[in-house]
Structure formats: C-alpha cells, structure tokens
Amino acid sequence: MSQPGTEMNITVAEDRNPELIEQLTEVWESSVRATHLFLSQAEIEDIKQYIPQALREVPACMF
Description:
Layout: H1 18-35, H2 41-48, H3 51-57
Helix pairs in contact: 1-3
C-alpha cells in the first residue's frame, strides 16, 4: 500500500539516444555531487567520462 503522493512510475528506456544519455549523465553528476563529498572535482570529471558508455551498455535501463 502506498502513501498518497508516493506513487512511482517506472520507464524502460528502449532507445538510448544521445539526448537521453546526456540527461542521465547530468542526473548521475548531480547525484554524485550531492552524495560523494569526498570526491574532488577532478575525480568526478575523470569518472564522468565513462558514464555515457556505461549507460549505453547496461542491459536494462529503467528510471
């Protein structure tokens, strides 16, 4: 039983076009900046270069 206002919609990304990859990369970056305060700017930028490839290759992309 869900609480009012807590319903969740799950979307399966069948077509991972460049625009979607860019949007998901931005979500990844903002999440990392909010939760991984121990990472430096340089470390985030270094890791970020691998995120688009990872998003394209993960078997199931749901958000």
